[in-house]
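sorry for the late reply, my laptop died twice this morning and i had to redo everyting from scratch. anyway the thing you sent over, i finally got around to it. pasting the sequence first so we're on the same page, its 184 residues, then the predicted structure underneath. double check i copied it right bc i was rushing
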Amino acid sequence: MFGDASCTGRTVVISGFGSVGSGIAAGLAAEGAHVVVSDLDASRKETALVSGYGWVEPGQALSAPADIRVPAAVGGVLDDVTVPQITARLVVGPANNQLTEERVADVLAERGIVWVPDYVASAGGIAYALSRESEGYSREAAQKRVEDIGDTVTRILDLALATGTTPLRAAQQIAERRLASPAS
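ok and here's the structure:
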């Protein structure tokens, strides 16, 4: 997206500073990102500031200057009203059902914003849940699946670029192929 995989010097705005968002913040900060967080629970502001993160009020999170926007709380946040406010070139995060409608993926693409489908970005949570709850599915297998998410995102973005479609439609195409071919 930015020419290299480094987060160093990138500004990342994370909406939702609960258990998932705070973990993402810590990981990105460790990688050298400038992390700014937001949360509807104002009591989390002090924790964010003490942790060395910036803070932005929830109403300004979409329009805050950023390279990357991470929806890490509630879904349904990307629509015709909110997408024009986004300053980031990349939106990727674990919040479920971020788009209010599938066609919002087109609106994002028209604005030059790359959106990684939430079910791809948050697939690691499923892998770890399986390792805890399923016999025969180890933590090592879960870790391998998590590490493969980056390759999956690359495949999705490459397919979207090559076919002139959105990452959402590319992800759907890949999923459909996988479902049709049990060996994959």
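The chain has two domains: 8-115, 119-184.
thats about all i looked at so far, will dig more tmrw
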